[in-house]
């Protein structure tokens, strides 16, 4: 029989067969290897680079690809304050792989054996690679209406502030005219309350005809004409959070197709009026449906926020293959208490949240409320600084027509945006917490760092803070670092590793420092952004 023949050919020609597939994009390797010790080894393309003694702590300078640079830095986060101890791979001598010569019949038999598993693997590869849509390699930036304008649908008595095409167009105009677009604020997104109360006769979502008389496609065209991108909102449930038609399991494909026809660039999918089982089916299904449309649509999921935001209920490994960004905590409110609660939650759970973030997949602590009514000037600095440290999406939710110059000064800070948009995509972490202070650190591209020193005190008294680079765990460049006060836009000077850094932090305020190494870092052919582009010394 064919089964006996297969068994015979394998037993004669393929002893100790170990199938190892190298999906490098070039070819598929099938190798023969002896039995290895029962230990887990990384495949070659996933091995972290070895670490050797050098002034920069990551081995001698090399043109290490950006991906490997990020992996090396992530490995260091497992040690206190980003120390340089990295677990190395075992150095015992392993038997070398053996190759064999196969006859034509051997090859035919082997292919027959491999057809079923190969078909499965190829199907999975096609599925999983399509989940990586190549979008949002840095945190997205833009504007959305929810925090500032909520579900205001009264266009008769409040025409300037109701959720309508006029409001969206006016915000698109301001992004294009007032320098926001050039800084990276490129998305103009709708939130809840844009749709009619019923679907159309063909079962498709439709906008409210009075507030969006031109239709969503025309609105998207207008936004695109300004050089911006357009986002829309739906809900994985029977209704949206404010009672408008939701996206159900049987309308996912229809809605994805509709959004693509409207030339939408981002979808936020909320999670009201559904249960955990529906979400577990619906969110991945929408990802597949969006990919089927052929249009690149960034995918924002609120799924984790409805499941407590933490493992084991939230599987961030799976989530990162489905969504480009996700909400995992409650909605932000226009208050200092709300901002502080979000920061504390991220700090308290950073060991679970930080590894989940990276290029194309971001933790979203919610919108920037800077420029509204609930934060002081100093507290507004805190939100912007910590969102930069957290590699968070920067979506403003304020009235750009009337926003103050103080708020614009914070939101348009080039160096702060540079920190937020760092290409490594490593989320920062809280490295120290005391009665009055929290210190947060973020590792940046090419040996740079950002440090946020936050004063939680509310007693009205500015407090001095003193430390040095060594105590902050920044030891890579033995020559020292140039340090800049980001929010005050002041160059503080060149600092050796043991030189004391003295700063003063206002109550409920922050000092954000940017550190640029004095020694040469050449991990990548991509150059460090020139100092003059950031107006730095």
Write up what this structure looks like.
With 537 residues, the chain is of the alpha/beta class. It folds into three domains: 2-49 and 58-86 and 94-131, no CATH class; 143-426, TIM Barrel (Alpha-Beta Barrel); 430-534, Golgi alpha-mannosidase II (Immunoglobulin-like). 29% of the residues lie in helices and 15% in strands. The protein is built from 15 helices and 16 strands. The strands form three sheets. The chain has an eight-stranded parallel sheet with strand order 7-6-5-4-3-2-1-8. Strand 5 (298-301), helix 10 and strand 6 form a beta-alpha-beta unit. Helix 1 (2-13) packs across helix 3 (104-131), helix 13 runs parallel beside helix 14 and helix 13 packs parallel to helix 15 (414-420). The chain is globular and about 70 Å long. Residues 1-67, 78-102, 105-131 and 523-532 have low confidence and may be disordered. InterPro entries: Aldolase_TIM, GH, Glyco_hydro_27, Glyco_hydro_27/36_CS, Glyco_hydro_b, Melibiase/NAGA_C. Catalyzes the hydrolysis of glycosphingolipids and participates in their degradation in the lysosome.
């Amino acid at each position: 029989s064919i089964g006996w023949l297969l068994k015979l050919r394998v037993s004669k020609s393929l002893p100790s067969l170990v199938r190892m597939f190298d999906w490098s994009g070039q070819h598929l390797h099938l190798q023969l290897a002896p039995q290895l010790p029962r230990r887990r080894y990384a495949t070659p393309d996933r091995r972290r680079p070895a670490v050797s003694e050098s002034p920069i702590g990551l081995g001698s300078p090399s043109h290490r690809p950006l991906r490997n640079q990020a992996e090396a830095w992530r490995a260091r986060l497992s040690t206190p304050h980003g120390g340089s101890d990295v677990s190395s791979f075992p150095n015992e001598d392993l038997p070398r792989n053996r190759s064999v010569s196969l006859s034509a019949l051997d090859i035919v038999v082997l292919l027959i054996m491999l057809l079923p598993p190969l078909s499965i693997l190829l199907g999975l590869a096609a599925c999983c690679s399509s989940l990586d849509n190549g979008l949002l390699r840095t945190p997205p930036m833009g504007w959305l209406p929810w925090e500032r304008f909520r579900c205001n649908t009264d266009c008769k008595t409040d025409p300037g502030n109701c959720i309508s095409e006029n409001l969206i167009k006016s915000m698109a105009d301001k992004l294009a005219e007032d320098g926001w677009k050039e800084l990276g604020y490129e998305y103009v997104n709708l939130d809840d309350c844009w749709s009619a109360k019923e679907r159309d006769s063909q079962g498709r979502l439709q906008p409210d005809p009075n507030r969006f008389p031109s239709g969503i496609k025309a609105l998207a065209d207008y936004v695109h004409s300004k050089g911006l991108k357009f986002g829309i909102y739906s809900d994985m449930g029977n209704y949206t959070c404010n009672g408008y038609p939701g996206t159900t399991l049987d309308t996912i494909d229809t809605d994805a197709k509709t959004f693509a026809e409207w030339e939408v660039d981002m979808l936020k999918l909320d999670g009201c009026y559904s249960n955990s089982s529906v979400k577990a089916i619906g969110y991945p299904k929408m990802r597949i449906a969006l990919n089927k449309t052929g249009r690149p649509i960034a995918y924002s999921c609120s799924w984790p926020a409805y499941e407590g935001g933490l493992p084991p209920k939230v599987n961030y490994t799976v989530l990162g293959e489905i969504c480009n960004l996700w909400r995992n905590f409650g909605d932000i409110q226009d208050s200092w208490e709300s901002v502080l609660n979000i920061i504390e939650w991220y700090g308290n759970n950073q060991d679970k949240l930080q590894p989940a973030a990276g290029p194309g997949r971001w933790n979203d602590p919610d919108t920037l409320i800077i420029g509204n009514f609930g934060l002081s000037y100093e507290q507004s600095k805190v939100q912007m600084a910590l969102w930069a440290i957290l590699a968070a999406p920067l979506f403003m939710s304020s009235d750009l027509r009337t926003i103050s110059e103080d708020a614009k000064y914070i939101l348009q800070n080039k160096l702060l945006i540079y920190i937020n948009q760092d290409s490594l995509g490593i989320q920062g972490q809280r490295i120290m917490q005391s009665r009055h202070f929290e210190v947060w650190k973020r590792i940046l591209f090419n040996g740079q760092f950002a440090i946020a020193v936050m004063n939680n005190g509310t007693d009205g008294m500015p407090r001095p803070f003193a430390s040095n680079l060594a105590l902050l765990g920044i030891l890579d460049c033995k020559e020292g670092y140039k340090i800049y006060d980001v929010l005050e836009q002041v160059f503080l000077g060149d600092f050796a590793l043991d030189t004391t850094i003295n700063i003063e932090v206002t109550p409920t305020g922050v000092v954000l420092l940017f550190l640029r190494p004095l020694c040469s870092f050449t991990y990548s052919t991509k150059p460090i952004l020139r100092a003059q582009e950031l107006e730095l010394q």
